[in-house]
Design goal:
The chain is 54% helix and 15% strand. It is an alpha+beta fold. It folds into three domains: 2-81, no CATH class; 96-130 and 236-250, no CATH class; 131-230, Chitinase A, domain 3, CATH 3.10.50. Strands 3, 4, 5, 6 and 7 form a five-stranded antiparallel beta sheet that branches. A two-stranded antiparallel sheet has the order 1-2. Strand 1 (25-29) and strand 2 form a beta hairpin.
Length: 279
């Protein structure tokens, strides 16, 4: 790190033109000084020499702009507004507490969540897993309107034969504007409609009454096969909520780790605590 900061020291030494005691002063605004020791800890790790000098220059310029305003604020604002020390200390305390809690939890957290845990959480909290939108499992193809081979696509996408589906995939990889086929994964209907411009004012009725759909517009031809669907406000499938549930479980573990750490630290520090406002 020192060799990367050498250009900064050289830059400061060449730029200051000050006596030995003031050689670390980077800038002065009225009676406030910005010194090198305040800036060095802020230089990003691994930065190259040229960028380190540029960082210091940019920081100094920003500090000068801010301090001009600070000087004016100290002259004109009422005393109660200027008294920011308590608020700054409270903010600093909150930052330190949060940083320590996050690092402590990161070190202690078991991030492995079993399928059994996910399923048990789902069963115990089903009311939390209501769909906010319609979801579907689909196959869709989007071709340019005059694409050769379009008739084959119209046959293949409806087929249940593995051979036909393999032919469809091969054709679409080479020729389709877009192609999607996953009978196991759920996607939002609204996301599908970004690719396939389905025209409907009643999405529930559309899903209930439509399994296959083919249509064209001025530019493209569309083919849609709906494998399965779930309506808005219905119970969300476990497979759709798996990652969400995993996050919930990990968050609960994190909260418990932090809660226990807080309790343990408080108990172990009782001899060092004096609360003079207790009842």
């Amino acid at each position: 790190m020192l060799r990367f900061l050498l250009p900064v020291f050289v830059f400061v030494a060449c730029s200051s033109g000050k006596g030995e005691k003031e050689e670390n002063v980077l800038a002065t605004v009225y009676d406030k000084n910005l010194t090198l020791d305040k800036v060095l800890p802020l230089i990003p790790e691994g930065i190259n020499p040229e960028d380190s000098v540029a960082f210091v220059k940019g920081f100094v310029e920003s500090w000068i702009r801010d301090m001009v305003i600070v000087h004016q604020a100290e002259k004109t604002l009422p005393e109660e507004t200027l008294n920011v020390e308590a608020r700054l200390e409270n903010y600093r305390r909150s930052l330190l507490v949060y940083a320590y809690e996050q690092e402590y939890a990161r070190q202690k957290l078991d991030t492995i969540v079993s399928d059994e845990e996910i399923e048990a959480h789902y069963e115990a909290n089903k009311d939390d897993f209501r769909l906010a939108d319609y979801i579907v499992k689909v196959l869709f193809v989007k071709l340019v309107r005059d694409q050769p081979g379009k008739a084959n696509v119209a046959k293949w996408y409806k087929s249940t034969q593995q051979k036909d589906l393999m032919e469809l995939e091969k054709f679409c990889v080479e020729n389709a504007v877009s192609f999607y086929n996953d009978s196991e994964s759920w996607i939002y209907l609204s996301d599908l409609m970004q690719e396939i411009p389905i025209r409907t004012d009643d999405r529930a009725t559309f899903l209930k009454s439509t399994q296959k759909l083919e249509f064209e517009d001025e530019e493209f031809a569309y083919f849609l096969l709906i494998h399965d669907y779930r309506l808005k406000d219905a119970l969300s499938p476990l497979s759709f909520e798996r990652e969400n549930i995993k996050s919930r479980i990990l968050n609960a573990r994190t909260n418990e780790i932090v809660r226990k750490m807080r309790t343990d630290l408080l108990n172990s520090s009782q001899s060092q605590i004096r609360n003079y406002v207790e009842n």
